[in-house]
Sequence to fold (128 residues):
Amino acid sequence: MKVYLAFALSYSSRYCAGVYSDIEEAQKKSIQKNGIGSLADVEEFDLDEDPVSSTWEKNGKRKYFVRISSKNTEVFRVHPDFLPVERIIDYPYRRFEITVWAKDREHAAKIASEKRAQFIVEEEFVEY
Fold:
């Protein structure tokens, strides 16, 4: 049996607004949540399928958001549609943020750390 997930956008995030057995109902809900004139954002799944493993992986890797500050390193698994990030944030404290495709959290932290080192070498990132 197929099910249809209706997605909606809220600022920079995407969330599931409902699960339907009929694609037309899912499309209506998605358009209702996203606003008239928007396109329907619907994904189809088999009822017993694991959507995380089928859509969240790319060549055996998952997308992670990594934040490195002078205090700690935080790693979050994010949806593949999460916007790419590679930036320096100055407020409230200086930190480096990036999204990467990696095998696991440790691999994501390693990639981010290497990218941060490149920024430092290229003098694009100044430690306080």
